[in-house]
Q: What sequence folds into this?
């Protein structure tokens, strides 16, 4: 009888510890979104748009989605000159790129391992790059131009192929995706 009690107690203790580790780990990432500054887009006319971090992808491990955000659409015109303000959450990022996407950006299962699914970001559809920096500073304000031949139309209600403005900040093993609906007029 006492072996049964010890095994039951040990099992409950192990489950409790694993649960605390599991929930504190995921809670840490939900709080991490609050600690990451948005990317700010400023048009020549002074209009500003903030794009909050949408996804954190730990390549080869796990992905985290910021479900609490509600982004305002970014409306631009071909040929617009914009300022992009950012603060890197990882010090010196490996790179930052910005592009327009007519398609989808979703978390996908890359493969299954003994430790669980390996998740990644799957971006599909037409892309048109407008900014790329392979050696960004810790924070900065940079200028970019919206391509004059951009072929993305005004805001579309088709959820599958909605126009998006996407920024990807590469921080070693983590990639942070900033995604907002976009319209080109």
A:
């Amino acid at each position: 009888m006492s072996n049964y009690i010890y095994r039951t107690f040990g099992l409950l203790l192990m489950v409790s510890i694993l649960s605390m580790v599991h929930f504190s780990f995921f809670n840490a990432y939900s709080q991490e979104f609050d600690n990451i500054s948005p990317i700010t887009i400023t048009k020549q006319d002074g209009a500003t748009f903030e794009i909050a971090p949408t996804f954190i992808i730990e390549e080869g491990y796990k992905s985290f989605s910021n479900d609490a955000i509600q982004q305002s659409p970014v409306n631009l015109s071909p040929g617009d000159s914009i300022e992009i303000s950012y603060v890197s959450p990882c010090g010196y990022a490996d790179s930052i790129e910005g592009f327009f996407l007519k398609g989808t950006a979703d978390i996908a299962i890359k493969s299954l391992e003994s430790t669980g699914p390996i998740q990644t970001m799957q971006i599909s559809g037409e892309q048109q790059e407008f900014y790329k920096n392979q050696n960004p500073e810790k924070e900065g304000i940079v200028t970019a131009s919206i391509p004059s031949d951009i072929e993305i139309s005004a805001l579309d209600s088709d959820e599958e192929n909605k126009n998006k403005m996407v920024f990807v900040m590469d921080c070693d093993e983590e990639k942070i995706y900033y995604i907002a609906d976009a319209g080109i007029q």
Notes: The two ends are 76 Å apart (CA to CA). The chain has one helix and eleven strands. The chain has two domains: 1-35, 37-184.
